[in-house]
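The records we work with from here on pair a chain with its fold. Taken together, the tokens spell out the fold as the letters spell out the chain. To see the layout at work, look at the sequence and tokens printed below.
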Amino acid sequence: MRKVEVCSYNEKWPLMFAEEVEKLKLIFENEIIYIHHIGSTSVQGLKAKPIIDIMPVVKDIDLIDKYNKEMQAIGYEPKGENGIPKRRYFQKGGNNRSHHVHIYQVGSYEIERHLAFRDYLRNHQDVKNSYGDLKEKLSQQFPNDIESYINGKASLVQDIEEKALDWYKKLEIIQ
């Protein structure tokens, strides 16, 4: 059973991300355009499940499945699209997950959605704190029920995501 654990921000998370990026670059080489640190561990000071979320952006998503064996060799379980069309998803660590890799093709809407959410939390301290507090409360309320934990934060996540996308689009216009 997967335990729901939310902890204080760990200064080692960016280093864990950087170490994994080097491994991914060796596997995917020229397929990768960018690699982003996303999710709660990418937001300094945010309480989070201690799982590093990594988002490589690639030229052609349809070529990624051919790298499944190499990903397995470094501890990842290939999960295919895992519910999101045109994504390739990998998990590392089984029930004690340490990393998630979400691969999208350049131009995917999902890329902007993830980056907007991350950057909005990085720039809105009050929202970041409210989100972290809710996650901590839900992890204590549902320590052995990941579905209830996810459902408990869904409304706030949707609200933040909508505001984040509006904010992000305004930033793009300014730049």
Summary: The chain is about 45% helix and 15% strand. The CA atoms of residues 10 and 41 lie 8 Å apart. The radius of gyration is 16 Å.
